[in-house]
Predict the structure.
Amino acid sequence: MQKTKTVYFCAGWFTDKQNRAYRQAMQAIKDNPTIDVENSYIPLQHQYKGLRVDEHPELLQDREWATATYNGDRVGISTSDMLLAIYVPEEEDVGMGVELGMASSLGKYIMVVVPDEDFGKSINLMSWGIADNFIKLSELAKYNFNRPGFDFYNGGVY
Amino acid sequence: MQKTKTVYFCAGWFTDKQNRAYRQAMQAIKDNPTIDVENSYIPLQHQYKGLRVDEHPELLQDREWATATYNGDRVGISTSDMLLAIYVPEEEDVGMGVELGMASSLGKYIMVVVPDEDFGKSINLMSWGIADNFIKLSELAKYNFNRPGFDFYNGGVY
Amino acid sequence: MQKTKTVYFCAGWFTDKQNRAYRQAMQAIKDNPTIDVENSYIPLQHQYKGLRVDEHPELLQDREWATATYNGDRVGISTSDMLLAIYVPEEEDVGMGVELGMASSLGKYIMVVVPDEDFGKSINLMSWGIADNFIKLSELAKYNFNRPGFDFYNGGVY
Amino acid sequence: MQKTKTVYFCAGWFTDKQNRAYRQAMQAIKDNPTIDVENSYIPLQHQYKGLRVDEHPELLQDREWATATYNGDRVGISTSDMLLAIYVPEEEDVGMGVELGMASSLGKYIMVVVPDEDFGKSINLMSWGIADNFIKLSELAKYNFNRPGFDFYNGGVY
Amino acid sequence: MQKTKTVYFCAGWFTDKQNRAYRQAMQAIKDNPTIDVENSYIPLQHQYKGLRVDEHPELLQDREWATATYNGDRVGISTSDMLLAIYVPEEEDVGMGVELGMASSLGKYIMVVVPDEDFGKSINLMSWGIADNFIKLSELAKYNFNRPGFDFYNGGVY
Amino acid sequence: MQKTKTVYFCAGWFTDKQNRAYRQAMQAIKDNPTIDVENSYIPLQHQYKGLRVDEHPELLQDREWATATYNGDRVGISTSDMLLAIYVPEEEDVGMGVELGMASSLGKYIMVVVPDEDFGKSINLMSWGIADNFIKLSELAKYNFNRPGFDFYNGGVY
C-alpha cells in the first residue's frame, strides 16, 4: 500500500521569484504520490479567525492575533510529518530560519527545495547545517518521501 | 554574591548598521555586571582551525570546514546560558532564525536587542513569537540577566 | 484515502461527572471517522500484569507496579498521534497536568474537550497555555483530526 | 567555593494548608546555603505589568494577560536550575502537573517537598513517576542541592 | 484497516551470532503484518554515495563520508516510527547505545529483541533502563506493533 | 572570577586499561581549575541505598534497585554541566553509548577523552558523530572548560 506524508509548506510569497517557486512547488507536491497535500499545512490557509492581514492591516499590531498565528504555525510544524522549505538562495528570511530550528528539535525531516536555476548558489551556513537534504525544484514531484535520506547541499555557504 | 551569565552573541556583520549595533552591543555587555563576556561565545572568534574565510574564500565550498563551523555555533548555543540576538528589523537573516529555533528547543533564554531608533518597527512573526523578551540597545548595559523575565515586543509583526 | 489518528485518552474516572464525560467521549471517538480507536491508548486497559488495583490495593504501595504503570502511560503518550484530554473544569487533577506537559515536549497535538455545560468556565492558567485547542464534547464526534489547528480557550483562567 | 542553585518555586496559595507550607518552605530555602533565593523565580512576584488579579479580576478573561503570565512561568522554569514543588498530597492541582512535565522535558531537577505530617500519604501516580526525589519539609533547609540525587517517594500512589 | 509501522533496524553484523540474529530478525519483520519493511531504515542499505567501506576502506578516515553516514543514521531514527534493536547480550556495542539514547529523546518506541537462547542473560543497566519493552526473537513475527506496551526485561543487569 | 563546571564522569571500571584511565582522568580533573570535582557526579559513588553490588549480587536481579540506579545516572547527567567520557577505543560499551545519547538530547557538552597511546585509533561511528570534542588524556588537566569548543576526532571510524 502506498503511504503518503504530510508537509509543513514553508515558503515566502513576497517577491516574484518566491511566488513563482511557491506555485511550482505546490503543483509538484500535488503530482507527488507520496505527499498528502489535502492534510498538509499551508500557512496562508490558516489565518486566525479567517481574517486576512491585507484587508485588516491593523491585525499586525494585535497581540492576540499574532499569538494565535504564531501558534498556528507552530502546531502546523508539530503535526506534520516533515518540513518542506521552498528556498530561494538570495531571498531567505528569518521566519523560515525559526521554522527550520523548530522542526529540527522535534525530529521532523527537513527537505530544502531550491529552484533549478539557483541550485548550487551559496546559502546561509545555518540552513546548510540544519537541513537533512537538498533537491532541485524539478525533482520534487518524483522524490519518494517514504524513503527519506540525508545528503549535503551541492553548493557553498556564506 | 554577584552571578554572571554567558551569552551566545548572535549578530550580523554584513552592513554598516549591523556593524554599528554589533560594536555597541559588545560594549554594553562588557559594561553589564551580570554578563560574563570572557566566557561567552562570539561566533567570529571561533573560525575552524583559525582560518579566516575572507583570506581563504575556498573554505566556503569545503564540507569539512562548513560542518565544523556549523557545529561550533551549535555548541556555542548549547553551552551558553542564553542567546542574545542583536536584531536590526530591516536586516534580519535566516541564520539568526535557525539559532533562535535551536536555542528555544534547549530552553535557553532568548533576549532580542533592537537599536533604539528601530525599536517598534515591525519584525518577522516567527521572531516575535519565539523570543522571550525584547529591549532597546540602550537598556542592554543595565539589564539584570540574573532575573530574566518574559515580555511581548512593543511593536507589530509582518 | 481517509487517514485516522490514534489518541492517548486522558480522562479521570473518579466522580460521576468525570465518568459521564468519559463515556460520552469514548462514544464520540468511536463515531469520529478520523480517529483510530482500536489502536489508541486507553490507560484503564493497560494495567501492569493485568492486575486491577481495586482488587489488589496492595499494588499501590508496590514500586515495581507503580514504575511499570507510570511507564506504560508514558509510552502511551509517546506512541500515540495526539493527546485527547477530557477536561472537567472543576475537577482537574495533577496527573492530567503531568501528561499535558509530557505531550507538549514531544510535539504531540493537545486537544482539550470540555463538557458542553462547562465550556467557558475558568480553567487553570497552565492548562490554558499548554493546550493547542479546545472544543465542546458535542463537537468531538465531527472534528477533523487530520487537519488540526490552534485556537484559544473561549473562557477565562484562574 | 560554595555554589548556589536557583529554583522555580512551584506552590499553591489557595488553602490554609498550602499557605502554611508555602511560608515554611520559603523560610527554609532562605536558610539553605545552597539555594540562591534572590535570583529564584517566585510566580507570585511576576504579575504581568505589575497588575494583581485580586484587584483586577477582569484580567482573568484577558488573552494578552494570560499569554504573558503563562509565558512568564514557562521562562521561570527554563531559566532556573531546578523545580521545587511544595506538594500537599490532598490538594494537588493541574497547574503544578503541567509545570512538572515542562521541567522534566528540559532536564531540570525536580524535588518534591511534602509537609512532614503528610509525608507518606498516597500521591498521584504521574507525580510519583516524574519527580526525581522527595523529602520532608523539615529536611528542606539542610538538603545539599549541589549534590542532588534520585530516590523513590516513601509512600504509595493512587 | 491494518496499519503498518516503520522501524530503524538497529543490529550488529560483526560476529556469527549477530549475523544469525540479523537474518532471523529481518525475516520476522517481513512476516509481521504490522511492520512496513519496504519503508523501514536498514543502515547497511544506506552507504553514502553507494560506496561500500569493505571495498573502500580509506572512507573510514574521511570526515565527509563519516559525517554523511552518521547523519544518515540519525535521519533514519528520526523518520522511523520506532527503533528495533536486535540485541545479543554478550556482544553489545557502543553505537547501539548512542542510537538508543537518540531514539528515546525523540519519543520513539524502543523494542529490544533478544535471541531466545540468550533471553534472560544479564544486560547493561543503561539498556535495561532506556528501552520500552523486551521480547524474544521468536515472538517478533507476531508482536502487534500497533499496540505497543511497556514491560521490564525478564532478566538481570550488570 | 574563575568559574568551575561539574561533570558526569562516564567511564568503565571493568578492565585494567579502563581502571588505569579512570584513575588518571580522576586525578586530571582534580588538577583542572575549571572543574568542580566535589559537586560532579561519579556513578560509582551513587549506589542505591549504599548497597554495593559486589557484596550483594542479588541486587542485579532486583527491579527496584535497577530502576533507582538507572535513574540516579539519568539525574547525574541532567544535573551536571557536561558529560566527560573516558573512552578506551577497544573497550567501548553500550552503557556509555546510551549516556552519550541522553547527554546530547539535553544539550550537554560532550568531551571524549582518549588515553594518549590510543588516540587516533578508530572508534565507533556513532560516538564519532555525537561527541562535541576529543582530547588526549594528557590534555585533560589543562583544558579550559569555560570555553568549550567543537572539533572532529583526529582518527578514523569503524
